[in-house]
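Task card 7
Instruction: Convert sequence to structure tokens.
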Amino acid sequence: MASMQHPRLKPPASVWKRIDSPPERLISLAALAIAFGALCVSFWQLDMAKQHNVLSVRPYLMVTPQLAGAEGKNGLYLTNEGIGLGVLTSLSVSVSGRVYAGLGKNQWPKILRDMGLEPLCFSFGWPTKVAALRPGMEIEILGKSKRFNPGCELALATFLTTKDISIELHYTSLYEEEHTFSGDTFLNL
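Output:
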């Protein structure tokens, strides 16, 4: 039995013959170029959207010294001023060139003793490994103790006005971009 073709369907050879003619071929190539251009623009827009998302959820971690008096906030505060989650990867405190680094093990008692200050005058919090700070979060990492003894107020003021103390934080965003904060604890009074 001879192969039967649908009367409206043309054999593939006749379709190729039509494309082979100059106007149809030019139109087909133009359509192909436009489609390829649209694909390139789509990939570019996808990349731009990702960059926008990365920037729009960037954390901004910082340490700020505060000395507001008896009823206010006094001490060092770790804050996330950005609009994305920040994950701490390292913390180091440098006092007169001596570096105290690492997450997990509390370094404040050693730092304070090496500075000649009484650790019992202070309350402290040293971040743990992979500690995360959500946007707007503020953590007191060094403050005045609840057992505030005479002379402790001076110890806190001494710490916050010492010029050769610096802090360096390394942290990542949700997109695992690495960021660094470097600053001093000096409160210019």
